[in-house]
Each structure stands twice: as structure tokens, then as C-alpha cells.
Amino acid sequence: MSTKEIALGWLDKAKRFLTAAKRSLDESLYDMACFNSQQAADMALKAVLIMKSGYKPLTHSITELLEAISEIEEVPSDISDCSGIEEHYIQARYPNARVKEYSFDEAQDSVKCGEAIVRFAEGILEEG
């Protein structure tokens, strides 16, 4: 299997998480919308790293993934601004992991970030 095929597999998985995030938002499952958006971003950014470097770091930190990508590819500011969704990897999964409940606005913002990051990854994988 080629590096591009592997990267496309990761991107496909990212798109499935994004679909789940949108469904969760529609069903008012805001914590799950945030978690699935984080997972979509995570998988999409790893697809970029696999495509560009052949390497997939063992992290779920969107910040770390974006920093690694920025060393080999320009990362637009709207994508960098989405690094805050990394908190949902822990907070959305565990009861009592945060003080307040997830809101529609927070979930909607997370889905928008997930969409932007998946589009960013799609553009890079189409080039390569």
C-alpha cells in the first residue's frame, strides 16, 4: 500500500467522524459533536503528516499536529485557530470532566473547525 493510499484511509476515517459530529449536533448531543469533531481533525491532520512525511505521531494534540505540519506546509490562520478543539478529546469523553455542560454554540464551532481541517487536509492530499 502506498503512502498516499494510507493517508487517504486516514482522511476517509476523518470524514466519517465529521459525519458523526454533524449528526450529533443535529440530535443535540453536543458533547459527542465536539468529541467527533476533535477526532475528525485529529485523523485529517495525521493524514497530512502521513502524506507529507510518512510519519504519524502518537498524539491527540491538535496543537502538536499543527506544529508538525507547519514545519513542512503552510497552515492558514483559520486552521491554527481551531487548535482549541483538542480539549474535547478528554472533556467530552468523561463525565464530570468539565464544570459546564456543552452548548449548541460550542458544538457548532467545533463542527465548523472539524470541517475546515478536513477541507484543509483534502486540499493537501489532492495536491500530492
List the helices and strands and how they pair.
Blueprint: H1 3-26, H2 30-53, H3 62-70, H4 77-80, H5 88-91, H6 104-127
Helix pairs in contact: 1-2, 1-6, 2-3, 2-6
Characterise this structure:
It is a single chain. The chain has six helices and no strands. It is mainly alpha-helical and 128 residues long. It has a single domain (3-127), classed as Nucleotidyltransferases  domain 2 (Four Helix Bundle (Hemerythrin (Met), subunit A)). Helix 2 runs parallel beside helix 3 (62-70) and helix 2 (30-53) runs parallel beside helix 6 (104-127). It is globular, with a radius of gyration of 14 Å. The model has no long low-confidence stretch (mean pLDDT 95).
- Please write the CATH class name: Mainly Alpha
- Give the rounded overall mean pLDDT: 95
* Share in helix: 55-70%
Number of domains: 1
State the order of secondary-structure elements, H for helix, E for strand: HHHHHH
- Please identify the oligomeric state: single chain
**Can you identify the CATH superfamily?**
Nucleotidyltransferases  domain 2
Q: Treating each run of at least 4 consecutive H or I residues as one helix, how many helices? A: 6
* CATH topology-level fold name: Four Helix Bundle (Hemerythrin (Met), subunit A)
* Biggest sheet statistics: none
Structural class by SSE content: mainly alpha
Number of strands: 0
Distance between the termini: 16 Å
Radius of gyration: 14 Å
Q: Examine the secondary-structure arrangement and name the CATH architecture.
A: Up-down Bundle
Question: Can you tell me the residue ranges where pLDDT is under 50 for at least 5 consecutive residues?
Answer: none
Beta-strand content estimate: under 5%
Shape: globular
